[in-house]
Amino acid sequence: MASAERRLTPSASKLGLVTFGHVCDPADVERLVTDAGPTRTSDLEEIGLTVSRA
Predict the structure, then answer these.
(1) What does the alpha-carbon distance between residue 24 and residue 43 come to, in Å, rounded to a whole number?
(2) How far, in Å, CA of 54 to CA of 39, rounded?
(3) Which pTM value belongs to this model?
(4) Core vs surface per residue 11-28: b (16+ CB within 10 A) or e
(5) How many CA atoms lie within 13 A of 51 on its CB side?
(6) How far is CA 39 from CA 5, 11, 12, 32, 34, in A?
(7) 3-state secondary structure of 34
(8) Which residues contact 38 (CB under 8 A, 6 or more apart)?
(9) How far apart are CA 34 and CA 52, in angstroms?
């Protein structure tokens, strides 16, 4: 059985917003799937997070 990949899939409108909720730390995610452009995800890519654009 293959291991599951940990993914987050926020839309561009949600990426970077801070609210009272907490999903997980960036270090806990293996891949970010989003419609956000590179300027919105560059900080996450710099720390090693794989970003896929939907």
Answers:
(1) 16
(2) 15
(3) 0.65
(4) eeeebeeeeeeeeeeeee
(5) 21
(6) 24, 14, 11, 14, 12
(7) strand
(8) 45
(9) 6
Residue 35: closest CA among 47, 53, 20: 53
Among 50, 47, 20, 16, smallest CA distance to 33 is for 50
Q: Rounded to a whole number, what is the largest CA-CA distance in the chain?
A: 37
**β pairing state of 50-53 and 7-8:** unpaired
Strand order in the sheet with 7-8: 7-8, 31-34, 50-53
Q: What is the pLDDT of residues 3-19, one digit of tens each?
A: 677 777 778 887 777 77
- Please state the rounded mean pLDDT for residues 29-34: 87
